[in-house]
Design goal:
This protein has 195 residues and is of the alpha+beta class. The chain has one domain (9-189): Alpha-Beta Complex (paralog of FGE (formylglycine-generating enzyme)). The chain has 3 helices and 7 strands. It has a 4-stranded mixed β-sheet, with no helix packed on it. Strands 1-2-7 form a 3-stranded antiparallel β-sheet. The mean pLDDT is 93.
């Protein structure tokens, strides 16, 4: 399944956390978000990080400096929504007791961008060894991800996070208007969504 900016979705099997659903394989990129701005669906955030939207070197990096409201607006534009916290857990863990999306092996530089090894975002999908069972990439590291939860929550850890912050069950509460280089998002669609 793909959406109108050609983002690829993978099927996440039903789990004890959530019913089955479609999830973007990667985080939303600067190029994808720029398409939404060009279409008039989203607005550009102010600040130095907005220059990444115009820089070809960052086209495939995750969009950052977006608030939860910005993420919700983009998701609606591509006929999707943000994942619930339960769905995000189901995508990263499945019906297993794995600690990380790829299993129980500790994070390393082949599986995730974390621990300030690079100290910046990297292109999405750069760590295929860190894939979850569903094929979703970057569920651990690179940037944290907005999810829908009772509080304003981000999941997954970032390029500055420690290895323990990348665990499937970790979550952090943030302010709804947070705009940070450490936070991006991905889109999901319900099981019956049209391709």
């Amino acid at each position: 399944m793909h959406d109108h900016v050609n983002a690829e979705y993978v099927w996440v099997e039903p789990s004890r956390y959530a019913a089955g659903f479609w999830m973007m394989r990667t985080l939303v990129t600067n190029a994808m978000y720029r398409a939404a701005i060009d279409a008039g669906a989203c607005t550009r955030a102010a600040g130095a990080l907005s220059a990444r939207l115009d820089d070809p070197a960052y086209a495939d990096h995750p969009v950052v400096n977006v608030s939860r409201a910005d993420a919700l607006t983009y998701a609606a534009w591509v006929a999707g929504r943000l994942p619930t916290s339960a769905e995000w857990t189901g995508a990263s863990r499945g019906n297993t007791s794995r600690s990380y999306p790829w299993g129980n092996r500790m994070p390393d530089e082949l599986r995730a961008n974390f621990g300030r090894h690079i100290d910046d975002t990297t292109p999405v999908g750069r760590y295929p060894a860190g894939a979850a069972q569903s094929g979703a990439l970057d569920l651990a590291g690179n940037v944290c991800e907005w999810v829908v939860a009772p509080l304003y929550t981000v999941r997954g850890g970032s390029f500055r996070s420690s290895a323990s912050d990348l665990r499937c069950m970790e979550a952090s509460v943030s302010h709804e208007d947070l705009r940070s280089i450490l936070v991006g998002f991905r889109v999901v669609r319900s099981a019956g969504a049209a391709p």
